[in-house]
Here is the input.
Amino acid sequence: MASKMMDYLPNAVAFIFVVSVDSAGGFQGDRLSHIIKHVRQSMSRMYCFDPQDAIFLLNKWDTVIQKKNRKKDLYEELRDTVHEIWEDVKDTNILKFTAAKVNEEEAYTAEFESFYEILKKVITKNEFKRVTVHLRFIESFVDVCDISLSSKLKCARQYTDDTIKDLDQLCRDLQVIQTKRTEAYSNLHNRIETFLNETAEDL
Here is the structure.
């Protein structure tokens, strides 16, 4: 699945990184770093994605608050960490989040609505980029084909014109040869008699 996901990266219009903040700040190990590194390497081929549109969800924030009393400092710390690994990210796209069910009164419902609105804007912004990019590629490809084919067609026409001229000349030459052949054939009997008479006289 990870391999399939990595192969699909150039087609993405949005990225949502879900970070579990209840374990070592959510950035332990190299899994997320590996994914982000791969995304960064793929960005030269990602025509439909703006790095500023990446979204980071600091998930399980409710469990962190229960354990720690420095939630504001922790958020700032994690936000700085996110900026270190993805410097283009907007602060508004770094959200405290919980995937657990919450009541409508709870703050996390508002966080989810914020996430939903941000994601919707990102998709709306980027959804036609692929069409635009592909259209631009097709136009460029057609232009190159047109130039190439026009050149080849010009050469082909020149070759055809030259061939027709050569063929016309050959037809004229053949006609002259045919006329001479006809004349020679029609005078053949007289020439034979003349030859025989002259030979006889010489003898």
Remarks:
- The longest helix spans residues 129-186.
- Strands lie at 16-20, 55-59, 94-96.
- The chain has a mean pLDDT of 78.
- Helices lie at 2-8, 31-42, 61-67, 71-85, 107-126, 129-186, 188-202.
